[in-house]
């Protein structure tokens, strides 16, 4: 058995296929907000990794939706053929792709032909009930997986214990899997509920190989759970295999499993999930051992699994915490990402709940377990209430981590920004200006204008103009800045570092005087 576990762990370390993380849009051509003289023949989207295309749609100024089926996907670049559009105004290119971690990613590229029109409705702005359904199915799937996997592993502690209570959880888990897969197809195509009857939706869902593999492995765990409801001579072996598959299911898909370096991320995910199941997955089996109306006075022999759990749970929790911190380090590039990103906010919520779990676990381990094993009815009741509270917290943790389905990790967000900081310096005989991207806000640029002796220069209006001399068919990108304290802020799309940019700053001093700075 030790040899099997060693081989299983080694396979995780040496699983060296190229797997990327959550895709991020690096740049576009034309840039977001560009004003063109004529309709572009092609639009290019450049990502930080190879992606799969699920939907491309153009929305014209009259809000007519045009499906775009002619495109080429070359590694990280997608080249979309655009039909001739004579209508003047603002266009929206709605794109949807699937990243290597199996999660859909969508966005909007806006550009205008001639004079920009009033912005049409952003198709991504409406919060669909579909996202709630995705979150709920994922939450239920995780909950059933942990309950069933915990029951499977409990078979190791109590080989002859009946586990008939696991049946509804295993059945519910099996039911949620096709629902989850169908919702994945809807999300990938950004389509309506009616398309669930369309085979294309399911084919698209299966095309995300890693995600489909994860659901398939979860199905195996649920089937293993059903096979271990009653004791037989292979129950111990099946229980160990089932626990390993539970960890493997999460190592083939998701943000954490695709974080570089792969040789470290995958084993950390597997260890984190298996140790979590060994801990929180055993809560329900353990609480069933304690006094109840069916078993008001449990015997010492009946509490033997609790004694075994108490002996080895401390090192398990230590491994759980270390692996969790390691995954957080891989996902969160900077400390301030914890409160500046949605991913970080979810992580903070999870850490708070886990901290409460650890407090209760310490209380159980050092205050209640020993007296409970000695036959103290009072300690047994306190332990039961405490574990019941742990179950509630564990359910909340699973609900919180299910929200990560909709939030890319900070490492992916920062991939779309340049590894260097672009800084422009402009000046004339009277004043100078420094223009640079804010470190903590992608796409927001700050403009500092001062005289040569260091005094803040007062202005009524500031306009930032950026052009690319190598693409003369694209009109200059203009953004009017707004004043915040002594600085002016302007919002721009992501600018590729490799490009050459020409910068111009128009500074309106008063109603009659204007200064133009060029680089």
From TrEMBL:
Transmembrane segments: 139-158, 165-183, 211-229, 236-256, 268-291, 312-331, 343-364, 385-406
Name under which the protein is recorded: Copper resistance protein C
InterPro entries listed in its UniProt record: CopC/D, CopC_dom, Cu-R_CopD_dom, Cu-Rt/internalin_Ig-like, Ig_E-set
One GO BP: response to copper ion
Record-linked PANTHER family: INNER MEMBRANE PROTEIN YEBZ
Molecular functions (GO terms): copper ion binding
Gene3D superfamilies in alphabetical order: 2.60.40.1220
Annotated Gene Ontology cellular component terms: periplasmic space; plasma membrane
Membrane topology annotation: Multi-pass membrane protein
Pfam families xrefs: CopC (PF04234), CopD (PF05425)
Keywords: Cell inner membrane, Cell membrane, Copper, Membrane, Metal-binding, Periplasm, Signal, Transmembrane, Transmembrane helix
Domain CopC as annotated: residue spans: 22-113
Superkingdom, taxonomy of origin: Bacteria
Family: Belongs to the CopC family. Belongs to the CopD family.
Subcellular location: Cell inner membrane; Cell membrane; Periplasm
Function, as annotated: Involved in copper resistance.
Residue intervals of the Copper resistance protein D domain: 306-404
Primary localisation category: membrane
Keyword NAD applies: no
């Amino acid at each position: 058995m030790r040899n099997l576990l060693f081989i299983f762990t080694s396979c995780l370390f040496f699983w060296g296929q190229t797997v990327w993380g959550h895709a991020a849009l690096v740049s576009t051509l034309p840039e977001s907000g560009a004003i063109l003289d004529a309709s572009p023949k092609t639009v290019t989207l450049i990502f930080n990794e190879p992606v799969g295309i699920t939907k491309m749609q153009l929305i014209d100024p009259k809000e007519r939706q045009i499906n775009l089926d002619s495109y080429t996907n070359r590694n990280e670049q997608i080249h979309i053929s655009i039909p001739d559009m004579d209508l003047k105004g603002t266009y929206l290119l709605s794109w949807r792709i699937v990243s290597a971690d199996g999660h859909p990613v969508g966005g909007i590229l806006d550009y205008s032909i001639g004079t920009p029109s009033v912005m049409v409705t952003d198709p991504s702005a409406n919060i669909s009930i579909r996202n709630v359904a995705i979150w709920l199915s994922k939450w239920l799937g995780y909950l059933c997986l942990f309950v069933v996997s915990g029951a499977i592993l409990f078979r190791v502690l109590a080989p002859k214990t009946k586990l008939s209570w696991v049946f509804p959880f295993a059945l519910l888990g099996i039911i949620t899997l096709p629902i989850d897969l169908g919702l994945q197809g809807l999300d990938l195509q950004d389509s309506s509920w009616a398309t669930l009857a369309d085979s294309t939706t399911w084919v698209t869902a299966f095309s995300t190989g890693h995600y489909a593999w994860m659901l398939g492995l979860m199905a195996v765990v649920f089937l293993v759970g059903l096979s271990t409801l009653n004791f037989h001579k292979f129950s111990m072996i099946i229980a160990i295999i089932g626990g390993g598959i539970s960890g493997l299911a999460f190592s083939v898909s998701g943000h954490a499993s695709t974080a570089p370096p792969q040789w470290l991320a995958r084993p950390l995910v597997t260890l984190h999930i298996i140790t979590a199941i060994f801990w929180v997955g055993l809560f329900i089996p353990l609480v069933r051992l304690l006094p109840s109306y069916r078993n008001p006075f449990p015997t010492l022999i009946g509490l033997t699994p609790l004694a075994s759990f108490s002996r080895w749970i401390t090192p398990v929790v230590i491994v759980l915490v270390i692996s969790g911190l390691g995954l957080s380090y891989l996902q969160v590039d900077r400390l301030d990402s914890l409160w500046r990103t949605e991913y970080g906010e979810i992580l903070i919520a999870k850490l708070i709940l886990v901290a409460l779990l650890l407090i209760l676990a310490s209380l159980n381990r050092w205050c209640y377990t020993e007296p409970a094993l000695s036959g103290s009815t009072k300690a047994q009741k306190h332990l039961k209430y405490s574990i019941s509270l742990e179950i509630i917290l564990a359910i909340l943790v699973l609900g919180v981590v299910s929200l990560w389905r909709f939030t890319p990790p900070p490492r992916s967000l920062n991939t779309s920004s340049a590894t260097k900081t672009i800084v422009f310096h402009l000046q004339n005989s009277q004043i100078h200006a420094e223009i640079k991207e804010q470190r903590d806000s992608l796409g927001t640029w700050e403009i500092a204008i001062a005289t040569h002796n260091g005094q803040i220069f007062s202005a009524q209006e500031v306009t930032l103009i950026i052009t690319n001399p190598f693409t003369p068919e694209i009109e200059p990108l203009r953004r009017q800045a707004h004043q915040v304290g002594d600085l002016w802020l302007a919002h721009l799309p992501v600018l590729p570092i490799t490009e050459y940019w020409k910068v111009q700053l128009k500074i309106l001093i008063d109603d009659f005087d204007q200064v133009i700075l060029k680089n």
